[in-house]
Design goal:
Keywords: Signal. The chain has 299 residues and is an all-beta fold. It has one helix and 23 strands.
Length: 299
């Protein structure tokens, strides 16, 4: 995953994990932009102050900008050199020891790209969140930990390790554990794909856990997600081709897509528009788990 600074323990009592229910709202889904070739994979997205969408590709080391207005313009912002942030393929998944974090400054006409830190002990960096001015948190989907990275120094260490919710399920053919990551109101929220949970844990000002892990909801295959101001999460499910709404109470409803359609084939990440009225979803076109067993499409 092309991780950049753009963006942005013991289990507590576990509630019953219920399957998502269908929503009664009529939500309109439309395609803003789609590549022309299969094999493309959009992984993480963020919305700039001007409303444009920044998105990273997983199949190639690229950062793109997409205008969601009527122009629908899409442009390549930067191609990262060599092994940019890690080696990954859908066949072999991640190559441990190849990961780094980058910063992309878009305040000038030309992007200013610099490296924040090499993280050779990481096995599969995935989700990324800014904890405070000096520290980043990053999920490691293979090692099953959350890393803490100090931006000024480039030093890094493990911030959270909880095998029950961070490590991939042992019987999974595609070992992807902790995935998405957000910081909100003194809590670090994270999704764990093959553990099938959305969870949170309180953190102190030293970017360290200060309490037990709490399971918010489960029973689905979460990828990345976004949090609204009230703590409601909107979760991309990738293998289930859908977007879910998870309320702080744990109630789960479907916002868009479903297991049997390509409307959100392989939904990977979610972002809120600046006015909070629109959800943007990136997709992998069903590469992780083809729709109906054999259908994939461009991201």
């Amino acid at each position: 995953m092309l991780l950049s600074r753009i963006i942005s323990l013991v289990l507590a009592v576990v509630p019953a994990l219920a399957a998502p229910t269908a929503t009664t709202a009529l939500n309109t889904t439309q395609t803003i932009f789609q590549y022309s070739d299969n094999g493309t994979w959009l992984e993480n997205i963020a919305v700039r102050q001007n409303g444009s969408i920044l998105t990273t590709r997983l199949d190639v080391p690229e950062l793109w900008e997409i205008d969601p207005t009527w122009t629908r313009n899409a442009s390549l912002i930067h191609t990262f050199p060599g092994v940019s942030t890690g080696n990954f393929s859908i066949q072999t998944l991640s190559t441990p020891g190849t990961y780094a974090l980058w910063q992309v400054d878009l305040t000038s006409t030309e992007p200013n790209v610099s490296i924040i830190a090499q993280v050779p002990k990481a096995d599969f960096l995935n989700g990324l969140a800014l904890f405070d001015q000096d520290n980043l948190l990053a999920t490691d989907s293979a090692k099953g930990v959350i890393w803490r990275i100090n931006i000024p120094s480039g030093n890094y260490s493990i911030a959270l390790s909880d095998p029950a919710t961070l490590l991939s399920a042992t019987d999974s053919p595609k070992p992807v554990g902790v995935n998405g990551l957000k910081v909100h109101c003194k809590y670090v929220y994270y999704s764990s794909t093959t553990c099938m949970v959305l969870a949170r844990v309180p953190f102190n000002k030293h970017s360290a856990p200060s309490g037990p892990v709490e399971i918010i909801a489960g029973g689905f295959t979460p990828d990345d997600f976004v949090l609204a101001g009230n703590g409601t999460a909107y979760v991309a499910t990738n293998a289930q081709n859908s977007l879910l709404k998870v309320e702080p109470s744990g109630r789960v409803t479907t916002v868009a897509g479903n297991l049997f359609t390509t409307a959100l084939a392989g939904a990977t990440s979610v972002a809120l528009s600046r006015d909070g009225k629109t959800l943007y979803v990136s997709t992998a076109g069903g590469q992780f788990d083809p729709v109906l067993g054999d259908i994939i499409e461009p991201a």
